[in-house]
C-alpha cells in the first residue's frame, strides 16, 4: 500500500524539496553539479541507511519517495516498520540504483528521516516517562510551516496523539482571545453562537472553570497549573468535559502532571524542539 497521510501531498512535497535543493528556476540551477561532474552517468550504487543512536523510526517511506522520484527503476527495501524502536547499528533501508540519482536525493531523504525520527524518538521518551495509559500525550500547532502533516505523523509514530490539526477544526480560546472578548464565558458563548462544534478553552485560574463550562466549552486546557492545582481543577470539572494540562511541561514534570487525573497532556516542544536523530547512509559502488 502506498504511503498516505490525509491532507498531505507526498508527490508535491518531494518535487518541491528536490527543486529547492537543485535550484530550479535560478541561474545555473536545475542540476546537481557535483554528481554530474564526478559520477559517470551509468554508474550504480547500493546503499544502507542505519541508525547510530536508539531511535523510534519515522519517515522511511517519505525518504524512499525521494529516491524513486529521481530513479524510478531503483530498488528500495524498508527493513523496519514505521514507529518501531531501533537500536544503534540497526539497518533501516537498503537501496540500489543509479549513483547520480541516489546521491542527488540523499540529503533530502536523510534530512526527512532524521527530523521525523527525532520527533518520534522525543515523543517516545515523553510517553515512557509519563507511564500513564489513562492519559494521552498530545502535540500542538508549534510545527514548521509546510511540515505540519509530516511532523504530526511523526508524533503518532512515537506513541503520541494529535491535537487539532490547524485553525479550522476546533476553536481554541486563549488569553489573547479573552482579552478582546472580555471574559471566559463571553468568549465561549460567542464561539458556541457561531456554530463551532468543538470549543477548547484555556483557563489558568480555578474560578474560570464554571463560567467556561456554563457557556458550553467542550474541553478545558488547564494552563501552567501545578499538580495540586490540576487535581483540584479535575475535581471541579468532575468529568463533565475532558481536561488537558499544558504549559512548560518537561520530561521531569510530565509524570506528576499526568497523574493529576487530566485526560491529556500537551507538549509543544515535541515538534518545536526535537533534535534530529543520528541516522547515516553509506553507499558502495557496484561493478
From TrEMBL:
- Please list the residue ranges annotated as the Quinolinate phosphoribosyl transferase C-terminal domain: 119-282
Indicate whether Zinc appears among the record's keywords: no
Swiss-Prot/TrEMBL catalytic activity: nicotinate beta-D-ribonucleotide + CO2 + diphosphate = quinolinate + 5-phospho-alpha-D-ribose 1-diphosphate + 2 H(+)
Which pathway, metabolic or otherwise, does it act in?
Cofactor biosynthesis; NAD(+) biosynthesis; nicotinate D-ribonucleotide from quinolinate: step 1/1
The UniProt entry, under Gene3D superfamilies, shows: Aldolase class I, Quinolinate phosphoribosyl transferase, N-terminal domain
Q: Name one GO cellular component term.
A: cytoplasm
Keyword annotations of the record: Glycosyltransferase, Pyridine nucleotide biosynthesis, Transferase
In short, the EC number is 2.4.2.19
Q: InterPro entries under this entry?
A: Aldolase_TIM, NadC, NadC/ModD, Nicotinate_pribotase-like_C, Quinolinate_PRibosylTase_N_sf, Quinolinate_PRibosylTrfase_C, Quinolinate_PRibosylTrfase_N
Q: Which CDD domains match?
A: QPRTase
Q: Which GO terms describe its molecular function?
A: nicotinate-nucleotide diphosphorylase (carboxylating) activity
Domain Quinolinate phosphoribosyl transferase N-terminal, by residue range, is: 32-117
GO terms (BP aspect):
NAD+ biosynthetic process; quinolinate catabolic process
Report if keyword Protein transport is assigned: no
- A Pfam family (short name) is QRPTase_C
Enzyme class, spelled out? transferase
| Subunit text | Hexamer formed by 3 homodimers.
Instruction: Provide the family line.
Output: Belongs to the NadC/ModD family.
What this protein is reported to do is described as: Involved in the catabolism of quinolinic acid (QA).
Protein name as catalogued: Probable nicotinate-nucleotide pyrophosphorylase [carboxylating]
Give the source species: Alteriqipengyuania lutimaris
Organism ancestry: Bacteria, Pseudomonadati, Pseudomonadota, Alphaproteobacteria, Sphingomonadales
